Amino acid sequence: MSIKKISKVQPESFEFSKDNLQEVENEIKKYPNDRKASAVLALLYLVQNQHENWIPLAAIKYVAKLLNIPYMQVYEVSTFYSMFNLSPVGKYFVQVCTTTPCMIRGSKKIVDVCKKNISKNQNELSENKLCSWVEVECLGACANAPMMQINQDYFEDLDVNKTEEIIQALLEDRLPTPGSAKNRKNTSPENGKTTLLEIKNA
Ligand code: FES
What we know:
Elements: H1 18-29, H2 40-50, H3 57-67, H4 71-80, E1 92-97, H5 100-104, H6 107-117, E2 131-136, E3 148-150, E4 153-156, H7 160-171, E5 179-180
Parallel strand pairs: 1-2, 4-5
Antiparallel strand pairs: 1-3, 3-4
Helix pairs in contact: 1-2, 2-3, 3-4, 6-7
The structure holds FE2/S2 (inorganic) cluster.
């Protein structure tokens, strides 16, 4: 389990773009006037999308002001959820699942590839600053273990060679096609369906 790292280098200010301010308005409208705080997760998500995949402390203050709630309340939310990053993670953020099914299927070797190619320790940027990696708990794709998430995409049924190939592509600023490394369709058998053959899309 990784400990959330808070960047020592922080921008002095943060403001949403014009488009995101419109999104903020849409999100806040979903809740009653005295329940605006409920939009906090959506707003933090917008911050992260706008700000290179991480949330600076200035943005936490900014969101608190927008929602008219205490700074500490937004800080607590952003430090609690693992999907929020509080320090730079690079353009390609690699999350390796190391929970039991992935561990049994070899996630340690996937972590070793990250250590060798991206950075010795998790939460550190690669030399070219394009990539970082972190160990995470189950990402809900256990039937395709071992797997990792890169930004919003899942890469599944991995082995050492495939992981090396993917990481090398990221370090060259290319995002490979996500999905199963064994070309399985979702969680279907490797060599195609064996049951329910008569049902389409089963
Ligand atoms: S244990 Fe890795 S996705 Fe569930």
